[in-house]
Known about the structure:
The complex is a heterodimer of chains A (285) and B (290). By secondary structure, chain A is mainly alpha-helical. Chain A has helices at residues 20-46, 50-55, 67-74, 76-109, 115-124, 130-143, 150-174, 179-186, 191-202, 204-220, 223-227, 236-239, 251-278; strands at 110-111, 244-245, 248-249. Chain B has 2 domains: 21-57 and 256-290, no CATH class; 71-254, MetI-like (MetI-like fold). In chain B, strand 2 (36-40) and strand 3 form a beta hairpin.
Amino acid sequence: MSKTIPRATVRSAPRTQVPRGLGRRLFVVVYFMLLLLPIYWMINMSLKPNREILGGLTFYPHELTFDNYRTIFTDPTWYMGYVNSLIYVGMNTVMSLLIALPAAYAFSRFHFLGANHLFFWLLTNRMAPAAVFLLPFFQLYQNIGLYDTHLAVALAHLLFNVPLAVWILEGFMSGVPREIDETAAVDGYSFPRFFLTIFLPLIRSGIGVTAFFCFMFSWVELLLARTLTSVAAKPIAATMTRTVSASGMDWGLLAAAGVLTIIPGALVIYFVRNHIAKGFALGRV
Amino acid sequence: MKTTNHRAWLLVLPVVISVAFSAILPLITVINYSVQDIFGPFQRVFVGGEWFRDTLRDSELRGAFFRNLLFSAEVLLLEIPLGVAVALALPAKGWRASLSLVLVALPLLIPWNVVGTIWQIFGRADIGLGGFFLNNTLGLNYNYTNDPFDAWMTVLVMDIWHWTPLVVLLCYAGLRAIPEAYYQAARIDAAKPWAIFRYIQLPRLRGVLLIALLLRFMDSFLIYTEPFVVTGGGPGNATTFLSIYLSKLAVGQFDLGPAAAFSLIYFLIIQIFCFIFYTMILNLGKGPAR
């Protein structure tokens, strides 16, 4: 691989190092400021009463209030939205991992009939336009009696999370040398015991990263989650449409609910940050 | 080398069953709709390929298609280079790296309709910081609900804000996987930063860039929730992308037959594009370079 480094650029004349770090740091700081600006604005708004929001532009809450948050934490129709979302997202993440792990192992270790086609087919399931597929989904889950359950949403989200999980895990698994499998077999480990006690700990990072992506895509998806539920498993994103009432938009409440949807995800990324930094090997591509 | 073992299908079977359950049954239903004229639950007439012919002739649909294609092209051209640049500039280790990763990932973790809401608020001239700044400080006449150009730019900037972090995260992870020895070799050769990027970093990012490109293409071509919340497809048809047009047809007018025919064609277009990207990039790396 090192042959790709051009030899022609060798010039041993000493060059003074331009402080490249400064421009780079400035770029990062500006990027983060632009990134955080809309979020800052939403947090700012969530701490104001509607009177102040509509009264004029203020850069920090002059009439600081936590009423918007209090409403959400005391009204079951609000906080149950978060609980419902967390339940089906959690179920989906666990199911995606359990289903994808053996398949990713198969893709990374074996040639089998139709492997490449199967892989592309899995990927195509992310591409179905939701608008028309919603009605068949609704009919399907109603016919099997799962409509308005957490399980229905978790199962439906497998459609796009399982292919992604297989894709990411397969990359990590391909980075583990095959000799380890063979040595374990020689040492008399059965396959399940080898897989659980030796192989899985080796790809811890991969499992962390995969769990993060599954959590993320399930947490942010709205159309399917809203279509497959009505009351008992209604996700928070659907509850948020309630803030449009006869008296106009309740902007403060909407902003507070929005702020609260960021927190679970931020916690998850905090826990997997080191695994992400370790990198994906992504062997297939 | 990989060993050939067809019993590996047993390991793949759970994936096939779980995905097929949610993929194939609805797909069959949609195909069923696409060849019928549906008046009610029990009143339907077989019409053959009529909806497909209509769909291909629909000029409004063609407008939405080219609008969406332009949008996806803009998204890819802006987000991929920006994402690579940010990933290169982020600190590599220490608490700064952890903090950067958490901050970068924030927009990705916000439900899509909330993203729409954030920008709907942010862009308003009366209560939003962005709209206020453009109108009162810069003196522009910015209004995303009236002006087609402003609406387009709002949706585009929102998408860049929302999805560039995905490209950053993938590239960042890819960059961390490059062995230190490569950089040492480059230092011995006194390679300039550009040469390091072009001959070491970029080739090693091929895999993650493929994922980023495919995911961004699919999602921008299917974009629905965010522009729907912000502009509702307007003003006029300015931000009516394919999915928005499709759901107007399916939900608004309850024209299930044409909508189903349309979504099958739509599905096919996306698959063709992704297949082209997929094989193109796979071959790019396995070409004469080796």
